[in-house]
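re the bet — no i am not wrong, look at it urself. input seq straight from the record:
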Amino acid sequence: MTIFKNKYFFKIFLIVLGVALVMGLFIFQINKNVQMVAEGKVFTNTVDIPKNMVGLLLGTSKKTLEGQVNFFYEARLEATKELYKSGKIDKVLISGDNSTKYYSEPQDMKEDLIKRGIPENKIFLDYAGFRTLDSIIRAEKIFGLQKYTIITQKFHCERALYIAERQQHQAVCFSAKGIPGISGYRVIAREKLARVKAWIDLNILHKQPKFLGEKIQIL
């Protein structure tokens, strides 16, 4: 009986191990494909990045869950300011979550960009950018953009560019500063799974934005 049990659990172990290896290879390949699509399209300085009329600023919360300043938020605003002041974008489309009247990433970012010297009439808001896929698809379907500069952190740039490429958009990305150390590694680890979800949404589920609506002319 003991030998039977050992053989039984050994078979289960092999099956679990095999599934884990397949899943690991699947995640690895998707992340590799995402990185390949983004290769040569992510820029860290305003000298090399090409000029586009519009910068698509991807939203994030102003504060962390603990009520602290969100480093990603501040870094994206500074990157947007740098692009605008250097003449590499003329307008900013902020796309983020506005799920309740008490929480609006686009509105928060707009107010803080104005404080940084970007004119209000150069800023446009997409209140239905609940996730990256929504923001990218709505950029074209609602705001008429096919050529633009995405603004976010490097790890996020690659996923956003992958989605944009699948929509046949001509996009580049300006990389805002990331978080160094352990916190940064945790975010990157989560991003690897987010890329798998994006791949499934685009290639299997063929998901569309939660909301579309009337077109808004910004060019």
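see?? The radius of gyration is 20 Å. told u. also The domain at 38-203 is CATH 3.40.50.620 (Rossmann fold). so pay up
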